[in-house]
Design a protein that fits this description.
With 110 residues, the protein is mainly beta. The chain contains one helix and seven strands. Strands 1-2-5-4-3-6-7 form a seven-stranded antiparallel sheet, covered by helices on one side.
């Protein structure tokens, strides 16, 4: 619950509504979509969206995946997990090279 509250707090401070789909799909390949809207519901364009993947406890990133802008305020790509097991995936959203949003969650692939 606290991670959801902190995520909501970050979104409220920024004025963005961020919706992520596909990360919790099954399998090693997951089609990820990130929808970013401002406080009035309009799409936020020009965002540099990236997923970073690493093992829990690791210090180095295993994979960095830039997400393409698919539509106004919609970013996406296919995240391919290198192997089964536990992974940490970090979503980073930047504009003009300034990091505005960052959220990490755990993924498990059998």
């Amino acid at each position: 619950i606290s991670s959801e509250l902190s995520k909501a707090h970050r979104e409220a401070e920024l004025g963005w509504d961020i919706d992520v789909s596909g990360l919790n799909d099954k399998g090693l390949a997951r089609t990820v979509r990130v929808r970013v809207r401002n406080h009035t519901g309009l799409p936020v364009d020009g965002v540099e969206a990236e997923l970073r993947l690493q093992r829990p406890g690791a210090t180095q990133i295993e994979l960095a995946l830039p997400l393409a802008e698919l539509d106004a305020g919609v970013y996406g790509g296919v995240l391919r997990l290198p192997a089964d097991g536990r992974w940490l995936v970090e979503l980073r959203l930047s504009r003009e090279r300034v990091l505005h949003y960052q959220h990490t969650q755990e993924l498990v692939s059998p």
